[in-house]
Each structure stands twice: as C-alpha cells, then as structure tokens.
Amino acid sequence: AQAAAQERRLEQQDERLHGLEMERRRLHNLIQELKGNIRVFCRVRPVLPEEEERQKGLEHLHFPPQDNKSLVLSRPDESHVGRERRGDVRYDFSFDRVFPPGASQQEIFEEIALLVQV
C-alpha cells in the first residue's frame, strides 16, 4: 500500500513538473515575442598579426563608453576616384549588444544563455 502511494505521489509530481515546464516555455516565448524574435549581436575579433601592419589596429572602430549597443566606424573616404574627396566618413551602427575584441567566450555566453532553450 505504501509503495502504491509513493507511486501515485511520484506520478503527481511528474505531472506537476511537466505542467510547470510547459508554463515556463510559454512565458519564455511570450517574453521573446514582446522583445522581438530577432536579435543582432556584433562581435569584433582582434586584429590578426598579419593585418596589424596594413590596418594599424582597430583605430577606425570606436566603442562608445557606457553604450554596449553601439559601434562607430570612421574611415577616410577612399571612394573618391573621379570625384572630390569628402573627408572622413562616419557610420553609426546599433545592435542588441556589441562585444569588443577583448570580450571572452564566457561573457558572450552569459549574454545569450537566456535565449537558448533545451
């Protein structure tokens, strides 16, 4: 009798666990929909040694302090062939998150871990 009672309790707990898991998934999907289902992340890799000479580092990329969602690209206008040179060109990009060259795998995983469901 005691084993049968334990078996029923185990089945009830399994059903409850399944119900809670379904609710968690529903709420997760609702949050995803409210935030928007598409996320855009940018990870800037470090300059490779053979690129160092040509590019002189990443001086054309600027990571605004206190804003981990923006990236600014500024370069001299190199498309001036046949036209008058306009000077520096600046492009501002916005992402859900920008990871600079020094970002670790752990830091990136922590940012996206909640988006991943098993």
UniProtKB/TrEMBL annotation:
Biased composition (Basic and acidic residues): 53-62
Protein's UniProt keywords contain Mitochondrion: no
Main subcellular localisation: cytoplasm
Subcellular locations according to the entry: Cytoplasm, Cytoskeleton
InterPro entries: Kinesin-like_fam, Kinesin_motor_dom, Kinesin_motor_dom_sf, P-loop_NTPase, Vik1/Cik1_MT-bd
Coiled-coil segments: 3-37
Superkingdom classification of source: Eukaryota
Family: Belongs to the TRAFAC class myosin-kinesin ATPase superfamily. Kinesin family.
UniProt protein name: CTK2 protein
Organism: Baryphthengus martii (Rufous motmot)
